[in-house]
Amino acid sequence: MKKSLPLRAAALATLALALAACDNRNANNNNTGGGNTTASGGTTSPAGGASGTLVVQESADIPTLDPGTTYDTGSGQAVENLYETLVTYQGNSLSELGPLLATEWTTGQGGREYRFTLREGVKFHSGNDFKCADAEYTFRRNLVTNTSSSGNWFLSESLLGTGSNANDDKSITWERITNAVKCDGETLVFTLPKADPAFLSKLAYTGQSIVDSAHAKKIGEWDGTEATWKAAVGKDLTGSPLSQNPSGTGAYRFLSKNSNAFTAEAFGDYWGDKAKIKNVVIQIVPEQAARQQAFLRGDADLIETGGRPIVEAQLRGKPGVAILDDLPDISAFGIFMNQDIKGEGRLGSGKLDGQGIPANFFSDVNVRKGFVSAFDVPTYIKQVQSGKGEPRNFLLPDSFPGYDQDLAAPKFDLDAAREAFQKAWNGQVWKNGFTVNATYRAGSVPAQTAMELLKQNIESLNPKFKVNIQGKQWSEILQDGDQGKEILIMTGWAPDYADPDNFVHTMYSSEGFYHPRANFTDPQLDAWVQEARTTTDTERRNELYSQIAKRAQDQAYYILMPSNPGILAYRDNLQGIGKDTFNPMLAFRTGTLWKDLSKS
């Protein structure tokens, strides 16, 4: 089993997902489209001091409310406010983690054991008390189910030494699962097969939120026993009973969800600082123009805007609109050059005769250097990103730990590109030319512009060089990319957890998720990546990532896209949003949880 990121990747590529808020008057009258799913059995009440409504408008539905399979931003923005994790990010830091449902923790056995002291006096929305048994059940359930549509692969990597579930890896037993996570009284104990420096960051991921085990079992979820665990392996949780009737410890409790809207209210028995806004409504409004009109009228507090060009041209400077700009970019994008292209009919002649390319065309480092040097990053920043962003030296966000700011980024240099192409394939590339096919996501202006810039510059070097670009549906690109059939594609990665390994292993390891899209194996990089995954020495990890970045740049494995700072438009009567509190690993779009927002 391998992990899959269609929802997250597509959302990032289109810059399309966002929080939004809906009409105060409608929300206060509970006019949300007739919700047909409601929370059951709760004995709690809404927060007495909260008032008003946060209204959010999105283009797409929320796929699931079950933390065990939450792996997209649409679901995550709701789940992270209904549920809570053991630890969380502190302020706007991507590296500092602090307590949430755990109050403290210790490590032992050389980084292989973690012992968590859990918070007392916490209630679930059902009225049940939070206990260690709930945390034990949660993590065992995640290890047991572990489908490709969840983020549980990286939890399983840490606790079982494999990202697979028991259907795909027969060495996984009930004993291994129960030994990996268990309660010692009211202390939660994790035992890892080897040290994992990213483990704490993984526990901060929304999909590792703690569920109400008694409530889950009561409504028909897995009973948590050895007798039934095999039947639950790989089970799809998207529309699970827990998705329809969630019970978490978060500051908001679920009210209803249907194809038109999601509603929640402040939880009166929340253990921490109570929410200031009483109701939250996420409305599904597919039409961008309708969302924008609602936002400008003040009927929506936050909307899916369509990205920087829309914000700059149609929202900035309008009455009642506030803008938060230059937000940290935590994604990494590049143009992949496939060194072992699979499939028929994509290579033209399949030879270095000017009418096509061989399947291993990009295995020559000088071909790759030619393409890298021919990509005009400064023009891309100017034309596509309104001058925002900086060139990068690595497929790792420059906001992340492990990024070496002292390493220069590749330069746009047509003379260097010409020199590289003249050396490529012992001079045959320059002599005979080539015809190469590149694809981009249909409808993506940034991706199309990038490919057009690359085509223009490559073809300017030699009349025998041809780059044909074609728009394709994102689903096709994902499928063909995973099968190694794409030749030149732009793709990217959004982090599951704020650790460099989440990017570096994905992009640069021969065992990484994106390996089929680039198809190179570099034993030196593999060794460095593996060492960085297992050492807890921060200084050594930083040194390793710097070495990986330098070697990868020398080998020109990717055309690196620049950073793309975020921009947020919101109604100016919404407080609690600011750079000092904005954390891109939390609360997609707003950078802070609903409970920390207020309205004037």
Report on the architecture of this protein:
The protein is of the alpha+beta class. It is built from 22 helices and 20 strands. Strand 2 and strand 3 (97-99) form a beta hairpin. It is globular and about 75 Å long.
Helix/strand layout:
Layout: H1 6-14, H2 24-28, E1 51-58, H3 73-82, E2 87-89, E3 97-99, E4 102-108, E5 113-118, H4 132-145, H5 152-160, H6 174-180, E6 181-184, E7 187-191, H7 199-203, H8 213-218, H9 229-232, H10 241-244, E8 252-257, E9 261-266, E10 277-284, H11 288-297, E11 302-303, H12 308-315, E12 321-327, E13 332-337, H13 365-373, H14 377-384, H15 414-423, H16 428-432, E14 434-441, H17 445-461, E15 465-472, H18 474-482, E16 488-493, H19 501-508, H20 515-518, H21 523-534, H22 538-554, E17 558-560, E18 566-571, E19 574-575, E20 598-599
Helix pairs in contact: 4-5, 13-15, 14-17, 19-21, 21-22
Radius of gyration: 25 Å
Determine the fraction of residues in helical runs and give it as a percent range: 25-40%
Number of strands: 20
Shape category: globular
Largest sheet: 5 strands, mixed
What is the average of the pLDDT values?
90
Strand content: 15-25%
End-to-end distance: 49 Å
Q: Could you name the ranges where pLDDT drops below 50 across 5 or more consecutive residues?
A: 1-43
Strand arrangement within the widest β-sheet reads: 8-9-10-1-11
User: How many helices?
Assistant: 22
Q: Could you say which structural class the secondary elements and strand pairing correspond to? A: alpha+beta
